[in-house]
Amino acid sequence: MALPRARFGKTEMEITKVGFGSWAIGGGGWGGAWGAQDDREALDAILRAVEVGINWIDTAAVYGTGHSEELVAEALGSVPEADRPYVFTKCSLKWDENRDIVNVLKKDSVKRECEDSLRRLRAEVIDLYQIHWPRPEEDIEEGWEALAELKEEGKVRHIGVSNFSVEQLERIRHIAPVETLQPPYNMLNRGVEDGILPYCQKNDIGVIVYSPMRSGLLTGKMTRERVENMPDDDWRRNSDDFNEPKLSRNLKLVEILEEVGAEHDASPGEVAIAWTLRRPEVTAAIVGGRRPDQVDGIIGAADLALSDEELRRIEEAIPAG
């Protein structure tokens, strides 16, 4: 399947407008978990993403404390090399024997993380290596120096960051050009619109947004009952957007997304993703999938164009604050 592609910032990569996100497939039992995950379904979801034409996968060392990267490697092991997608991963979040997470950006730590990710991914080189969070903030320069050296050493092809502010991007740009940024962006989290996105466009920084469906809230599948029955280790249980008073307002927004989607034979989630892609600064969106059918339910967003009238209707329905 031929999906629309776009040049990814300063890199030579042309990536599909949607990519496969592998946060949730890491499974339960750690601080950022989405609950238990069936590995076979996770592998099938990855293979379905490749089958429908998605040409990049985003993962991170910390997802499932290494398990997500291992699943990506296992799934892609059966894919012919010519058909394999790019694999992007991230560093700076480490864990101990109790799976407690700490932020580390010291150079030696980052380089050890890279070696560990290469091993788990069964790869000789990582297509895009990203700093996951700018923490500890006093060490972001040292962490970025480590990524620049890893690129020079041929361990990674391209380097980028996630969750950085404009001020933080300015602090590191003299060390090595920032090729990509991964920020959160969706209808309920628009903080990047005024500063980050224009900055990235001005500096030719590729942007892949995460959580375009607000972690499943805007898919049309989320109900009040489903939220109430989330497992204890699903981080969303403690999110304001999944609790009152915000939950009721957010579910009303989903009703509008359903109406707009019906006019395009598209799901509410596809409308939510397409809404993020309307911004010219956004190269592509990361969309998580835990089962093959979830991949099928979002792929239409890649070439879904919303009219000005539809965008106005959505804008009016987005809750304030």
Automatic annotation (TrEMBL):
Domain NADP-dependent oxidoreductase: 19-317
Keywords: Oxidoreductase
PANTHER family per record: NAD(P)-LINKED OXIDOREDUCTASE SUPERFAMILY PROTEIN (PTHR43364:SF4), NADH-SPECIFIC METHYLGLYOXAL REDUCTASE-RELATED (PTHR43364)
GO cellular component, one term: cytosol
Stored InterPro entries: AKR (IPR020471), AKR_Detox_Biosynth (IPR050523), Aldo/ket_reductase_CS (IPR018170), NAD(P)_OxRdtase_dom_sf (IPR036812), NADP_OxRdtase_dom (IPR023210)
One term of GO molecular function: oxidoreductase activity
Protein name in UniProt: Aldo/keto reductase
Species of origin: Rubrobacter radiotolerans (Arthrobacter radiotolerans)
Gene3D superfamilies the record matches: NADP-dependent oxidoreductase domain
Keyword Oxidoreductase assigned: yes
Keyword Transmembrane helix part of the UniProt annotation: no
